[in-house]
Amino acid sequence: MPQKNRTVRGVLGGLVGLVGLSAVAGLLVAASVTPVLTMTGLAGSQALTLFNKLPENLDPGTPMEQSTIYATDPDGKTVELASFYEQNRIPVTYEQVSPTLYDAILSSEDKSFYSHGGVNLGATVKALIDNVRGTSSRGASTISQQYVKNVLIQECEQDVDRASETYTDDLRKCFEDATNASGSEGIERKLQEMRYAIQVEKDYSKNDILLGYLNIANFGGTVYGIEAASRYYFNTTAAKLTVAQAATLAGIVQNPNTYRIDMPQGTTTNQDGEALNTAESGYSLTKDRRHYVLGRMLADGKITQAQYDEADASDITPTLKRPTQGCAAAGVNAYFCQYVRSIVLADEAFGKTPQERADLLRRGGLKIYTSLDYRIQNPAAQAMRDIVPANYDNDYFGAAGVSIEVGTGRILSITQNTQFDETTTDDLAKTSLVFAGDQKHGNSGGFQVGSVYKLFTLIDWLEKGHSVNEVLNGRVQTNLKIPVCESPQTANTKEIGNFGGGGGRTGSVMDFTRQSLNSGYFAMAAKLDICDINKVADRMGVTLADGMANAYATVASGGKYCTPRAIDRVVGPDGKDRELPAASCTDGVISPEVAATAAYALKGVMESGGTGDRANPFDGTPLIGKTGTHDRWSTMMIESSTKVATAVWAGRWKGQSDIYQKWAGNHQLNNMRYPLAEAAQAAANAVYGGDEFPRADNNLTRRVMTEVPNVVGMTMDEAKSTLESRGFGVAVGAPVDSDKPTNIVVAQDPQGQTAGGSTITISPSNGQGTTVPAGLVGMSRSDASAALTAAGFTSIAIDNSCNPPTAVVSATDPAPGTATSKSTAVTVTCK
Predict the structure, then answer these.
(1) What would the DSSP string read from start to end of 596-638?
(2) DSSP string, 767-783
(3) pLDDT, tens digit, 9 for 90 and up, residues 275-294
(4) What is the per-residue burial (b if ≥16 Cβ within 10 Å, else e) of 742-764?
(5) DSSP symbols for 38-49
(6) How far apart are CA 40 and CA 182, in angstroms?
(7) CB atoms within 10 A of CB 536
(8) For the chain, which end, N or C, has fewer CB atoms within 10 Å of the first or last residue's CB respectively?
(9) In the chain, what percentage of residues exceed pLDDT 70?
(10) pLDDT one-digit tens code per residue, 715-724
């Protein structure tokens, strides 16, 4: 049984007794190998000083280790999503390896390990002489020397340029250079190996050296370390290896690529080209080596005769569990995994150059703990599978969803309808693009967001002091003037129109938001500036293909913007936390008053009758939201509580084919966004809850009154133009009696002040108005009749009291001075 924690100081007698290690060992080894050096042309003082001139400092460092991305399940347990490696290695502690494996390695490789000081001097010298003479190619290396050799190979491999066309050949050369035992270079390599071994034995305990060797050693192909080998070849752990399995692995490590047992067609050939060590032969070469290992274990008393007989008689039957690396292993979580991987490969926290970052991921042994929350991810992923086919019609129809924690930016969920596959394929059900990401994080170019962008018009509207209860002319217009960087541009809003058609209406900003009225938001933009609106979007973190969910989370948080982040913690192979990618939260990106009032308007979207009510789980959690549609091929739904924001996109991820009036199962393509968002948000609400949104600002919800221009006396066209230029709607009332021409406005309603955007009724003259002459009283009958006829009256009744020649007018009905119609009957009386 291996001894525990025995250091070199307890075994010095095996090499130099109790005197100075390096100096004495150097002299002994140099003297012993002088004949050998002479045979290779290295003689005299050169031979005597070569060993002492070799460097003795070797830092074993950390071998290349796989990096792993983790999530946390609902029970708080760490779950592996995916691993990335150049060498499949899973480091273990001393106690995690079966004692039987230690016995197998030591009996077959270095039975004197615990009694020598790093070098088996006699065996090494004999091997050197045999190598030079060509009578043998054995290495005679101790475990310590083999450990050193593997460390040197690792150092060489870590310096190989992965992008080089000669990458594979360069790796092979690392191995060949480190194992070359011929000629003067081989002699010098062996001496260097010995020199390092002596130093390693001085600095590390025996158990540390033995474990280091088992963690770094190659076991064939890309399988490195005893734990990875145990899992790969026998689907077990290093702690649970049987005698036969331990002896097999101890045999494989002696010549990994010859004795490996994962190549049924054979690992090598004989002089006639016949395959050797095939599955059909029972892996005969490996079995012979196992027979040797078992024999050494029996001779050393590490196993009984019965254990030997049973193990030696057993077949070598691998139970291969081929390791998978890359995000495909993460299943429905693959796109979240790919997003995290892209952060590692892009962020300078993981290296200054792309190559450094790639090497760190595949070699650096990182443990990357993510923000993924299965409590949201699983229901959201299930809804995605149930609702959206991976390839609906072979025309690039896709869907994606993301949920983000409000106030932190932590990404809790990423789902996608396609199957993750990094292989280029014509199958549209498969892709490695992360639709929810951007070019930097998932190679996605992004998608048109439609009306969810109206958020930034709303924010700019409020920041400029406008009220959500301000009334505007939200009708479709053909010549609306909208400022663009202070330069008014004519917009024909009819070209865009409103969802479902319709000419729009006069209404409040609250109404426009609730119903996502395009023409209403154009009317708002006419009072703002498009460039200012875009600056709001920039300030709230929206870039090409990224940031919409976080923008709505900013409103839900009361104005705090947080950069999105998917990594909570990164631990290096040394167990220490590494620096995380830069992330930040900034208070006051929008004011609390603006955020609260925007939320007040956006709540209407999620209430019954709002455009987003179909995505509301109505579980009692207050929500804000916004719908968006771009033409007829792309849709979005964003909703948020005060705790979690969810964004869903569904549409064509390539091309612009119509998705309306098309069904997949029980869902129309253009409406799939609603149940997808509802499922994710319901799960988030169940876990995180949500509070009432703050009360809207009084000033930003005030009723706004606007002065109405007086257009009486203007022509009808002049009046309409004047009113519309001020944002009012115009209606034409019934003609009014007036003596003005029929194209003149003679009445308007209302006058003075009214709500902005209200409809003003203007009434033209009917041309029939007149006035009973004021001077009729005292006139004679004939003069009065003439005056009334001149005023346009066509119905004049003269009373009999006016018959006497001396009679004069005493009264009229209507009375003199009365404005009336020309068709009005006028009665004249006299005295």
Answers:
(1) HHHHHHHHHHHSTTSTTGGG---SS---EEEEEEETTTEEEEE
(2) S-EEE--TT-TT-BHHH
(3) 999 999 999 999 999 999 99
(4) eebbbbbeeeeebbbbbbbebbb
(5) HHTT--HHHHHH
(6) 10
(7) 21
(8) N
(9) 89
(10) 999 999 999 8
